[in-house]
C-alpha cells in the first residue's frame, strides 16, 4: 500500500495534488505541455507512479484538473483585486495587469495548439474557464460605457479587442527584469484603447 502523506487519506490526497500541480507548473514553464509525462511528473513531485495514476489516469485529466485548480484560485484573486479598485478605468487596469501577470506565469500552448493536443471534451472543459474571466471584463466595459469613460459603439468588439491584446505573449516573453515595465506599458495602451478621450486612459 502506498505511503500516506499527511496522516489521513484526505490530507494525503491534498498533498499529492499540491505536489503534482507544483511539478506540472514547473515543467510547463520549462518545457511545455508536449514534453509532460505522468511518470516524469511523479518523479519530480516525489510521489509514486501508482499514486499519481490513482489521481490522474492520463496527462489530459491532469492538465484539466490543474487548469480548474489554477482558474479557481485566479478568479478569487481577481475578484479581490477588482473589489479594491474604484472606477471602471481603475478596474480595467487591475484586470489587465493581473491577466498579463497570469499569462507570464501560466505556460499552456495557445488555443489552436492546445485544441490539437487534447480530445474535444477535455479542451471544452479547459476553455470553459475563460468564461467567468471574460464576464468580468464585459462588466467592467459595460460600467465604463455607462459612466461615459469608455467608447461604447460596439462593446462586444471592444471586449474582444482587449482580451486579444491581453493574450499577446510578446508582452510577457521578455527578460524578468523588464517584465514589470512591459506590463505597465501594455496596461497604459489598453486604457487608452478603450478611452473616450484621445490620449487619455
Automatic annotation (TrEMBL):
<dbReference type="GO" id="GO:0003700">
    <property type="term" value="F:DNA-binding transcription factor activity"/>
</dbReference>
<dbReference type="InterPro" id="IPR050109">
    <property type="entry name" value="HTH-type_TetR-like_transc_reg"/>
</dbReference>
<protein>
    <submittedName>
        <fullName>TetR family transcriptional regulator</fullName>
    </submittedName>
</protein>
<keyword id="KW-0238">DNA-binding</keyword>
<dbReference type="InterPro" id="IPR036271">
    <property type="entry name" value="Tet_transcr_reg_TetR-rel_C_sf"/>
</dbReference>
<keyword id="KW-0805">Transcription regulation</keyword>
<feature type="domain" description="HTH tetR-type">
    <location>
        <begin position="14"/>
        <end position="74"/>
    </location>
</feature>
<feature type="DNA-binding region" description="H-T-H motif">
    <location>
        <begin position="37"/>
        <end position="56"/>
    </location>
</feature>
<dbReference type="Pfam" id="PF00440">
    <property type="entry name" value="TetR_N"/>
</dbReference>
<keyword id="KW-0804">Transcription</keyword>
<dbReference type="InterPro" id="IPR001647">
    <property type="entry name" value="HTH_TetR"/>
</dbReference>
<dbReference type="GO" id="GO:0000976">
    <property type="term" value="F:transcription cis-regulatory region binding"/>
</dbReference>
<dbReference type="InterPro" id="IPR009057">
    <property type="entry name" value="Homeodomain-like_sf"/>
</dbReference>
